[in-house]
Amino acid sequence: MQNLASRGAPVADLFSGTSVVARALSIDHPVTAVDVQAYAEVLGRAMLTSGRAEIDCIDQEQLVSDAGRIGEELRSSFGAQLEDEENALRSLEHGDATPMAQIINRGSLAAAAQTGEQLSAAVRPYLEDNGKDATATIMFGGVYFSYEQAVLLDALAGAICHQPEGARPLLNRPLKKAASTRV
Fold this sequence. Notes:
Number of helices: 10
Oligomer: single chain
Radius of gyration: 20 Å
Largest sheet: 2 strands, parallel
Shape: elongated
Number of domains: 2
C-alpha cells in the first residue's frame, strides 16, 4: 500500500465486507470504507470507530437483564416451536429423523405464514410491523438455526437495542460474527 499512497493520505476500501483491510489501512491512513451489504456497516463501525467511550457507556447489568427478559418473552411466544424441536431431537436420538425433517421441510415461520399456515396467536405479532422483533426466529428458526439458537440471537439483538447508540455497533459485531460462523 505504501507504494500507492503515502502515509497519511486518504484511502478508500470500496468492498469493505468485514472491514479487516480497512482496519489495517487505518493505522497509517484515514479510511473511507463502503460496501453495499448492510452487515458491512455494522462491522465497519465497530472496527473503525468504536473506542473507549463506546465501551465505557455499555451498561452490562442492563444488557444481561434485558437479554434474559426478552429471551423469556420469546421462549413463551415460540414455545410450540421450541417444544416441537425438543421432541424432534429426542426422536433423532432414537433413530427417527422424520420429525426433524418435517421441521426443516416446513421452512421458516415467515414462509409458513405466506402459505396460509395457521400460526399461534403468540407468534403472529412477530410477523407484523408492530415493533416486536424476532427476525432470526421468524426468518431462520428451524431451518438455518435451531429455534433455541434463533431465540437466543433475537434476545441478544433486542438487548443491544436498549444500549446507548454508540455502543450498538461494538456489541452487534460479535453477535453477527457468532451467528455467521459459530452456529
